[in-house]
Design a protein that fits this description.
This protein has ten helices and 14 strands. It has helices at about 10-20, 75-80, 95-100, 110-115, 175-180, 220, 230-235, 245-250, 260-275, 275-285, and strands spanning about 25, 30-35, 40-45, 50-55, 55-60, 85, 120, 130, 135-145, 155-165, 170, 175, 180-185, 190-195. A hairpin with a 2-residue loop joins strand 11 (about 170) and strand 12 (about 175). About 30% of the residues lie in helices and about 25% in strands. By secondary structure, the chain is α+β, with helices and mostly antiparallel strands.
Amino acid sequence: MKRKIIPGQISTKDLHQYIIASVAPRPIAFVSTLDENGIENLAPYSFFNAFSSNPPIVVFSSNRRVTDNSTKDTLHNVRVSGECVVNVVPYSIVRQMSLASVEFPSSVSEFAKTGLTPEPSETVSAPRVMESPVNMECKVKEIIPLGEKGGAGHLIICEVKLIAISESVLNGDRLDPHKLDLMGRMGRNYYVRASGEAVMEIYQSVTEIPLGFDGLPKHILESNILTGNDIASLASLKNLPDEQEITECLKYHPEFIPLDAVQKQRKAIDLIQEGKSTEALCLLMS
């Protein structure tokens, strides 16, 4: 049974919590801007993502406050300057990022309050956060208001003009998620740390046509032991093994021969977790 949540029938505050807890974890844009007086502003936004690579576009939303329908300094500053820097948030600065979410007066720089270090950007006037391992210098292409009431967002569409990346988070020409150690936002006061055992690699070719669930034998689909993830690992293979391949598999793994149906399924799970889906499928079809 599922609970129904109908917008308009509950408070905006409660609806907001249902949405942000469901759409999670979310990446965090730690946005630095300058106002017309040269005062630096720094604020985190988790209504944020990348939307295009060519042109390179990232978008974040600065929402009206639910309490009094007021707007935030970041929105004012990007309207005035037409630029910003999107800084990523690693675990090492997550508490400082949280401090920046406090509603300080416009005359106060969050850099001073958080102890973070502003460093000059190359293509925009707004400073980068030195402690952030990736900084995206952006020009604001468009600001789209989504409503006029408290909780309404303003989509701030940004074109990336330069990305500054710390060498310490690179493996060759690619970013290493474990070295980045990024934080993600969830509902209420919850965050997630995207490194260590929380990170997994799932490869699926988008050009080769896989078996799919409908291409697997019925007894595998009806298993009470294999999970949906287990079966999906088998369904991602290109072909079913033929009799010769199954025979060769059993020759190589004679320990499979005496297993009963339940034991085969449990062993198949182990094989799948070891990245040996082909052997697992051969075992289940033997």
